[in-house]
Write a structure and sequence with these properties.
Distance between the termini: 123 Å
Strand content: over 45%
Strand order of the largest sheet: 32-31-30-29-28-27-37-36-35-34-33
Radius of gyration: 58 Å
Largest sheet: 11 strands, antiparallel
Structural class: mainly beta
Helix content: under 10%
């Protein structure tokens, strides 16, 4: 029920009587009474010449007819104010039942916010002391179930990926369960979703629409699936051998892996199983250990794996195990060698040997006061023994290549090598001591240093102690020895030959290289690194390496390389035939290379001839011209072979009949 109030404005009129100049009229001292009655509507006096004013009646009427609203809803109220042009009412909530209601209303706008508590509100609209009111009922809003899928990817995902989605449910009914379903485009993607929102993207690219439903409420997301890139691991290390006790850094590249991805390294097999090699799983650093054999090493990343076989070979006996200058003692006797300087032998009753002075070999004797001395009056005749013979005969390293690996001590890592000394230079040496063993045994540590040396005679070890010596005596320390090594007796033209030096008492930086050519028209040269450029003219060169007054020379014959293709047919050959060509090559040991180029006779056809590296030409099925080239050591020969198309009728060859072109 609305209540209405009215304001009545009372208008009072005053009548002023004026005196007349007419002598017929007279004045009166009595006044007429004034009408003071109140009215609710304005009155206009039309009987008087004087101005009169009336006050209008003001009313406020709420015009909204809706009297209910749900919690957390809004309701816009309206009101009309009459009697005051352009006036607007001010809104307020007069009462709340219950009092804890949290509704509010905009004083100027009349927009009611129902709040979260149900109840009854009395709302007023007021202007100029005049008001109207309305009763609003706030009802509890019904609870609506909503579903929101969480965890869906914002970008594309790969095939074969597993995702976990969650459903955020509001106002779900008691005991509700989320029903997960999915559809795919194309239908054969193989994607799926389980009852817990776990999505498998399947094996094919496309789109997956996943829906979570609770009753009538649902939410859907679309997941775009693209082909997963193939992840691969490739071991890039090309070295497949590592010495016992050594290390090898392995490396691998990963394709389509995560940024900074690295493989995990492992040794997956060993042969024999006693091998003690190890590998760092994070870095790929392989440590060979002390036992030789073969390993299979793998590099793995996710499901991708690559492997490589690494060999830890039986260690080869180094050619420099024995010192260049050494002393070997067997019992009371010894053998002493200073390379390029001299040889001293000690027997049961005497000490003797040879000393090299100014490239002349002299006999040597032992003097208790002076030590080893040489007798200049007794030079050896070259017919008796040359310098090279004297030193080579007693150089134990000369037989080092004949030693074979026997075993490795697991505790120390020392390697044992054995040699059958029959027919070796070592046999010449031990005869000096009056013993005739069958084999010799050397033990070398992982660093290549000699640990022990033993001769074995009829199963009995005869110890031989080897120690390094610097010189035979103090007075010969100034000796300079120069030997050119690695020089072949013959070499082809247009080649490069690196020469090495064996130096005693001189630095390599002090060496000067030079050559003498015969004939002098030869264009061979040698640089100061000892590399001989043989040039294009045949002849002989004498190469010298010198330091002051000391030098060594070698002579090398330079020969022209010839290359000629033999077995070339003089007449055209037919398709389908085989031609055996011959490589005629002189003055080079390099391996020749065969190659061909082909031009088909008919346009639009491609010849399919092939040429083996043993010179066998297969003419193929298409006629044309084949140019055969043989190359070696910078030289080559070239021949043309014409191939004619062999006619056929239904697959049968017409023997001896060819196209004439």
């Amino acid at each position: 029920m609305r209540k209405k109030s009215t304001l009545l404005a009372l208008s009072v009129s005053a009548l002023l009587l004026l005196g007349s100049c007419d002598p017929a009229r007279t004045s009166s001292s009595e006044e007429s009474p004034v009408d003071t009655t109140s009215k609710t509507t304005p009155v206009t006096d039309t009987t008087s010449d004087t101005d009169s004013e009336t006050t209008p009646t003001i009313t406020v009427d709420i015009t909204t007819t809706v009297t209910e609203v749900e919690t957390e809803g809004t309701l816009e109220l309206t009101a009309t104010v009459t009697g005051a042009e352009g006036a607007k009412a001010t809104w307020a909530i007069k009462t709340k039942t219950p009092a804890e209601m949290d509704a509010s209303i905009g004083a100027e706008t009349g927009v009611l916010n129902a709040g979260t508590v149900a109840g009854t509100l009395v709302v007023t609209a007021t202007y100029g002391g005049v008001s109207d009111e309305i009763t609003i009922t706030v009802k509890e809003a019904p609870k609506v179930t909503t579903v929101k899928i969480l965890g869906a990817p914002s970008e594309t995902v790969y095939t074969g990926t597993n995702l976990k989605l969650d459903a955020y449910v509001t106002n779900g009914p008691d005991g509700y369960r989320v029903n997960w379903t999915c559809t795919t485009d194309p239908a054969d993607m193989g994607a799926s979703v389980d009852a817990n929102g776990n999505v498998s993207t399947g094996t094919k690219p496309g789109k997956i629409t996943v829906t979570a439903r609770v009753g009538e409420a649902s939410d859907s997301v679309v997941i775009t699936v693209v082909e997963a890139p193939v992840v691969s691991v490739d071991i890039t290390t090309t070295d497949t051998q590592v010495a016992i006790g050594g290390t090898l850094q392995l490396a691998a590249s990963i394709t389509n892996g995560e940024d900074g991805a690295k493989p995990t390294w492992a040794i997956t097999s060993k042969a024999p199983e006693t091998m003690d090699a190890t590998i760092d799983p994070a870095t790929g650093l392989l440590t060979a250990g002390k036992v030789p054999g073969k390993l299979t090493v793998t590099a793995a990343y996710e499901d991708a794996v690559d492997s490589i076989e690494i060999t830890i070979p039986d260690p080869a006996f180094a050619t420099d195990v024995f010192p260049a200058s050494y002393k070997m003692t067997i019992g009371d006797s010894y053998f002493e060698l200073v390379q390029g300087k001299g040889i001293i032998l000690s027997g049961a009753s005497n000490v003797y040997g040879y000393i090299l002075v100014d490239e002349v070999l002299y006999t040597a004797a032992y003097d208790e006061k002076q030590g080893y001395v040489y007798r200049l009056d007794q030079p050896l005749s070259p017919g008796v023994m040359t310098v090279d013979e004297a030193f080579a005969t007693f150089d134990l390293n000369a037989d080092a290549a004949k030693y074979t690996y026997a075993s490795t001590d697991a505790a120390t890592g020392n390697h044992t090598y054995i040699i059958d000394i029959d027919g070796t230079r070592a046999q010449d040496l031990i005869k000096i001591f009056g013993i005739f063993p069958e084999t010799a045994k050397a033990v070398v540590n992982p660093d290549g240093d000699l640990v022990s040396f033993t001769f074995v005679e009829e199963g009995k070890d005869i110890a031989a102690t080897i120690t390094a010596v610097d010189d035979l005596s103090e007075e010969y320390k100034a000796y300079v020895g120069i030997t050119i090594t690695g020089a072949p007796s013959k070499a082809p033209t247009n080649d490069e030959i690196p020469l090495d030096l064996n130096l005693v008492g001189v630095d390599e930086a002090d060496i000067t290289w030079s050559i003498v050519k015969n004939p002098t028209t030869m264009d061979a040269t040698i640089d100061q690194d000892g590399i001989l450029h043989t040039g294009s003219v045949a002849g002989t060169v004498t190469v010298r390496a010198a330091a002051g007054d000391y030098y060594h020379e070698v002579t090398i014959e330079i020969q022209v390389v010839t290359v000629d293709i033999g077995g070339v047919p003089t007449e055209p050959v037919l398709t389908g035939q085989t031609v055996e060509l011959v490589a005629n090559i002189t003055n080079t040991d390099e391996t020749p290379v065969w190659s061909i180029t082909m031009v088909a006779k008919e346009d639009g056809k491609t010849m399919d001839a092939t040429l083996d590296q043993d010179g066998i030409l297969h003419t193929g099925t298409v006629g044309g011209t084949i140019t055969v080239t043989l190359s070696v050591a910078g030289y080559s020969d070239e021949v043309d072979i014409v191939v004619k198309q062999q006619l056929s009728d239904g697959g049968a060859t017409d023997e001896g009949v060819t196209e004439d072109w």
